[in-house]
Amino acid sequence: MTNIAIITGGSRGLGKSMVQHLAKAGVDIIFTYQTKATEAQELVSEVEQQGRRAAALPLNVSQAETFGAFAGQVKGVLAGWGAEQFDYLVNNAGIGVHASFAETTPEQLDQLYAIHVKGPFFLTQQLLPLMADGGRILNISTGLTRFALPGYAAYAAMKGAVEVMTRYQAAELGKRRISVNVLAPGAIETDFGGGVVRDNAQVNAMIASNIALGRVGQPDDIGGVVAALLTGETGWINAQRIEASGGQNL
């Protein structure tokens, strides 16, 4: 029986790579997008050309009041595929805010909280009745919870909350044999945060000089790790923070 994954923020960046790698691993995918409908449908077609099933659903993870309706949409997709449950959930969708601690506004903090903490908390809660026992949840954090880079205090604080939430999810969902872990990427060349790591050669070189493997990460570095953690023989890994950074700021 084919496994099914749900990935939030799957139309671009790290999420897109996760979709691609999981499809190559034989997984059917439901992924969300917010504004990039064209890119989302192109990715659906790409997955289907590989012989896998895919569906793209719109979702704003900052609007928790919509999660019940979203769960209904997921249930409809699953029924169309002849399934009642899904197996993997990746809480990936997010934004970056660069502001010093002294200059961070209440509005910025509230937005980050809604997207990175409240969103994954209540979306996971809504989807649990549709998740198979023995499934796997992967919450996406950041290397910035381990090392400090000025300008990311608010963002990293939210991801720190995600890491604590993950341990509690693991403790409470263990009775259903659902494992819950955190994946913390280091610096990756994407459009995240305005694409500064990807597009600013000086910033890229500075970060690469602090990475043991000598380069900044690529989206496929993360997509491959996600596929390995979800589909590999890693079911005994639970309540752990796994960093994929190439050895950044050791």
For this entry, give a set of tags.
250 residues, single chain, alpha/beta, Rossmann fold, seven-stranded parallel β-sheet
Short summary:
The chain is of the alpha/beta class and 250 residues long. Helix content is 43%, strand content 17%. Strand 2 (28-33), helix 2 (37-49) and strand 3 (54-58) form a beta-alpha-beta unit.
Query: Which structural class should the secondary elements be placed in?
Result: alpha/beta
Total number of β-strand segments? 7
According to CATH, the fold-level topology is Rossmann fold
Binned strand content: 15-25%
If you average the pLDDT, what whole number results? Answer: 96
CATH arch. level architecture: 3-Layer(aba) Sandwich
C-alpha-based Rg, rounded? 17 Å
What is the class in the CATH system?
A: Alpha Beta
The strand line-up of the biggest sheet is 3-2-1-4-5-6-7
Biggest sheet descriptor: 7 strands, parallel
Measured as a percent range, the helix fraction is 40-55%
Number of helices, counting only DSSP H or I runs of 4 residues or more: 8
CATH H-level homologous superfamily name: NAD(P)-binding Rossmann-like Domain
Rough shape? globular
- Low-pLDDT segments, ≥5 res: none
Query: Order of SSEs, N→C?
Result: EHEHEHEHEHEHHHE
Number of domains: 1
Distance between the termini: 42 Å
Task: Describe this entry's structure for a reader.
With 250 residues, the protein is of the alpha/beta class. It is 43% helix and 17% strand. The chain has helices spanning 13-24, 37-49, 67-80, 106-127, 153-173, 196-199, 201-208, 219-231; strands spanning 4-7, 28-33, 54-58, 86-91, 131-140, 179-185, 241-244. The longest helix has 22 residues, at 106-127. The model has no long low-confidence stretch (mean pLDDT 96).
